[in-house]
Amino acid sequence: MTKEYLSDEELQRLIDEAESAPLLAAPSYLKTEILYKTDRIMAQPVPGSYAPTLPPSWRFVFYSLKVGIASAAAVLMLLCIPMGPGEYPLSRPKFRVEAKDNVFSGITSLVDRKSNEFCGYLSELTNRRY
């Protein structure tokens, strides 16, 4: 079987016709059919794998849950690190500005203290030589 290619003139004529002709509209059902088939293909198990694949919308939901759980775990770890005073001494400021007593000042000072303790712990951990 021999492949016959177009000559340069025929190819140029074909390009000119394609550029000058108006674009054809795709069938109206094509988009929905493609999306349906891709969701169906994504739901089929891949041969050789044991975990079923999920459609992209479900994968996004699980990814969002993972990120939310990781964020909550980071905040809990920040607030619940068992470090006592003086265990990782931090430099204290030379002066303090007195804050008004309200609910948020206690929470922010707790978060500030715990984050400083956590950063000190990480600094000690990374600077340790083995």
What characterizes the major β-sheet? none
Q: How far apart lie the N and C ends?
A: 70 Å
Order of helices and strands: HHHH
pLDDT < 50 stretches: none
Describe the structure.
The protein is mainly alpha-helical. The chain has four helices and no strands. It has helices spanning 8-20, 30-43, 56-79, 103-127. The mean pLDDT is 78.
Which features does this protein show?
single chain; 130 residues; mainly alpha; elongated
What is the topology?
Layout: H1 8-20, H2 30-43, H3 56-79, H4 103-127
Provide a short characterization of the protein structure.
This protein has 130 residues and is mostly helical. The protein has 4 helices and no strands.
